[in-house]
Amino acid sequence: MQNKILNSLFPAFAACFLLLTSCSSTSNLGHHSIYLDDNKVETDSFIMEGLKPECKNNTLNYSLNVSLQITNKEQKAAEYLFKDPTLQDETQGGKYKVTTKNEKATVDPGMTVYVLFSSAIPLSITEHKYKLSFDMNGYQIDYGLYDTPDELRTDWTLKYYASGKLVNTVKVRDGRGASRYVYESSDRLEYCENWYTDEAKTKYFGEPWTVNSDMNVYGDALPCFDWDTSSNPDYSIMKKCNHAPTDRKIIIPRYYDNKEIYIGRNAIRFSSGVDVIYIPITVRGIDDGNVNGLSFTAIYYEGSEEEWNAMYKGKPPVNLFFMNHDDFPY
Predict the structure, then answer these.
(1) The domain 28-144: what is its CATH number?
(2) What are the extents of the domains in the chain?
(3) How many other C-beta atoms are found inside a 10 Å radius of the C-beta of residue 29?
(4) Model's pTM, two decimal places?
(5) CB 253 within 8 A of CB 279
(6) CB 211 within 8 A of CB 177
(7) Termini Cα distance of the chain
(8) What is the mean pLDDT of the chain?
């Protein structure tokens, strides 16, 4: 008898269970987290975008205003209900009261409504991490008032090719800007500082160098110095220095094109960007138009004062220093 009663009630229990699960699924359509640097949610029916928060310093506290814009993508008017707004200090764990003037909004097709949330907080959002949370039509929205944490970002691989050769590989967090990279060859005779996202080098990869996928960038290795190798059979003439290295040190090579070097007029004359210039003892001569303009740059010569005077006919600069062969940076 008891089993018959239970059997007769089973369809009713099943119908009730299906009704409850159906209600549960429609009341929680999705959970979305947005951040200052990734502040948009898009569904089939609407687009929500968080605007930059305003945090003003009052006498006793800070006033925080957070605005969101919601665009209706449907073909008919939509009603948006905003429930249970909360603000939490994720640094210290405090929770603060949130008010809104727009608890309900009706938006025509293709139109946008702005919703404003306000709160009083003890510390500014630049000092602590705050998260605004609310429910809208069954969607749970969490708006972190800071950039996406690194642990939630993807690592992307960025490869640099200079003149067809892979010269550097770095990992960049999703949406982050890659640090500016300048390629400098190990012999310090080539460099590349302009990069492009296509091998034809038509699309410049410029700052802020944002990376959102694995990608390759391309550039051309350029000579750090311009040379004249035909005017004199005994040595190569350095005509110009094109690149101030990232370590702010210029190291003149001992030889170029299998010949000793003569530094031509104004070839290494810098007013800024270089702290030290190293000149090897193999340099055959230096035009006086160079070192006279290097008053704020230390000049290190791999040799003695006598050897310098034999190589350079002008007055020795006050910022000239002599060093031993074993200490020279080769």
Answers:
(1) 2.60.40.1240
(2) 28-144, 153-223, 225-327
(3) 14
(4) 0.60
(5) no
(6) yes
(7) 100
(8) 87
